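Posting for a labmate who doesn't have an account.
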Amino acid sequence: MKNITVAIDDETYRRARVVAAQRDASVSALVKKYLCSLTEENSAVRDFKKEHEDLLDSIAQRHPRFKVADNLSREDLYQRS
């Protein structure tokens, strides 16, 4: 296990101690938990572009007659009667 040193201002450290006490933990335990959560997220990086494309595909499958070209023009959309 590695030890690290982190420099923070006094007020941040005081608030971190309060939060740690409320959670019945130490500041070190909070930092460790936070760093572990960061590394877990990085191991499962989301591919937002693929998710977006998949979402558009699913919409197209559910609504096959919908086409972007069917949209009204800006002028038609805001035309007043």
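Reply:
Got it, the structure tokens are right above this. Residues 48 and 54 are 10 Å apart (CA to CA).
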